[in-house]
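TASK: fixed-backbone design
INPUT:
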């Protein structure tokens, strides 16, 4: 019109309906329309029937596949069980074969170690050499302790600083969640960043506090692990269980290197001698046993026949020449290791004794029982000089003195730390949602660690 260029935006769509093709002349009558509808209905019904048939066939195939899968799972489970049983039988037979060979050797020759754990239950007896070794170590330790006892370490955390401790870390993934609970713990004496725990899931776990990661998970016990100890100078740990065995593990190898079968019932207590070569164990079979960790041999095994009662815990005195055991009838018994005799008894608790701990100064013994109290005993005067009464329903599960003998930690319904001599409470933590089963001090009480039935490992410091 005006000779100007036209842009696409200026164009307007014109909507036009498309013409519809009329029906064929044959479909215009009513009978023809009815026939067409009838044909379409028949086709739809036939198609529906075909689909139903296919669905039924698919369902049958699926049920058959599920049945086959279930049967396969059952077969696999049975085979796995048989393989496990065969391995256990093999593990039992090999040490027995080794034992026969060992008995044939002269006493001076050590048994061949091999890669398999040895299981030895023959009592060899306390030789004069062993007794002399224990005596020499005790002499050295007593001298060292007397020097150390005159001064408190300068690095030791003071009570006023200890009272300011707060939870700084919590780790809950060490043990299985299906069977919750950490039942015991220990710190490596030479590197307190390494923490050892035993759980209700039958596993022993080595955890690095600094790196915040698991170093090793050790599997082999057939029941829960109730006692663990970290060797002070070797990369070796010990564990005990109600499966009546004591196991020696290599942390670096991640395997069991020795099985000590010293008892016929649940092993309830474990303590490592200061030499690092011998283990003390107590059991519900009423015996305590003294075993060599290198050979797995039981050197001596003793019971108090007059008492005839299960032992609930055991602990070496720092010197290693005497030790204490707790009993199910609330007695604390002090034993002379060289003479294998009961030299003192401390009655006073009511209920089974749950934990005992010797102070590093060598004079104090702390004991806890199912009577919601902690008793302190003077080993020189052989008497109870202090009783710390706890809440009525308090359960004492763990007692430990720090290395200097300045502080006493109590684990159970909560965590409490007392300063020795005054026996006044300087700390109280109730961060665990379950019973606290283990407590331990770091070097110079720089930190406090705890483990509990809530499956968590916690650390406290400034």
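OUTPUT:
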């Amino acid at each position: 019109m005006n000779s100007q260029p036209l842009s696409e935006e200026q164009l307007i769509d014109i909507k036009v309906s498309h013409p519809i093709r009329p029906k064929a002349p044959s479909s215009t009558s009513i009978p023809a329309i009815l026939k067409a509808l009838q044909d379409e209905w028949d086709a739809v019904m036939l198609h529906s029937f075909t689909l139903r048939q296919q669905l039924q066939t698919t369902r049958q195939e699926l049920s058959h596949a599920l049945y086959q899968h279930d049967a396969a799972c059952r077969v696999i489970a049975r085979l796995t069980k048989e393989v496990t049983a065969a391995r256990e039988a093999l593990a039992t037979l090999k040490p027995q074969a080794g034992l026969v060979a060992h008995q044939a050797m002269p006493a001076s020759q050590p048994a061949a170690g091999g890669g398999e754990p040895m299981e030895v239950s023959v009592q060899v007896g306390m030789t004069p050499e062993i007794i002399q070794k224990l005596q020499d170590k005790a002499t050295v330790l007593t001298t060292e302790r007397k020097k150390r006892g005159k001064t408190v370490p300068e690095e030791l955390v003071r009570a006023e600083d200890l009272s300011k401790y707060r939870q700084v870390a919590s780790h809950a993934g060490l043990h299985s969640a299906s069977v919750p609970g950490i039942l015991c713990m220990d710190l490596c004496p030479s590197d307190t960043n390494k923490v050892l725990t035993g759980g209700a899931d039958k596993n022993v776990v080595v955890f690095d506090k600094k790196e915040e990661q698991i170093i090793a998970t050790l599997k082999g016990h057939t029941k829960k692990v109730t006692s663990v100890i970290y060797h002070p100078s070797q990369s070796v740990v010990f564990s005990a269980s109600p499966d009546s065995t004591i196991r020696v593990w290599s942390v670096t190898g991640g395997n069991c290197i020795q099985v000590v079968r010293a008892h016929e019932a649940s092993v309830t207590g474990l303590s490592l001698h200061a030499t690092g070569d011998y283990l003390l164990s107590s059991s519900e079979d009423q015996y305590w046993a003294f075993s060599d960790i290198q050979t797995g041999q039981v050197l001596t095994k003793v019971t108090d026949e007059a008492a005839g009662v299960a032992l609930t815990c055991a602990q070496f005195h720092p010197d290693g020449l005497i030790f204490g055991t707790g009993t199910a009838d609330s007695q604390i018994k002090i034993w002379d290791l060289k003479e294998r005799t009961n030299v003192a008894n401390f009655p006073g608790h009511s209920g089974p004794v749950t934990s005992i701990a010797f102070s590093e100064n060598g004079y104090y013994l702390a004991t806890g029982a199912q009577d919601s109290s902690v008793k302190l005993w003077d080993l020189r005067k052989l008497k109870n000089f202090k009783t710390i009464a706890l809440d009525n329903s308090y359960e004492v599960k763990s007692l430990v003195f720090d290395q200097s003998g300045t502080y006493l930690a109590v684990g159970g319904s909560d965590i409490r730390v007392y300063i020795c001599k005054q026996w006044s409470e300087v700390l109280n933590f109730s961060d665990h949602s379950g019973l606290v089963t283990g407590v331990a001090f770091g070097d110079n009480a720089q930190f406090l660690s705890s483990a509990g039935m809530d499956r968590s490992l916690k650390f406290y410091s400034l």
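COMMENT: The first helix runs from residue 30 to 104.
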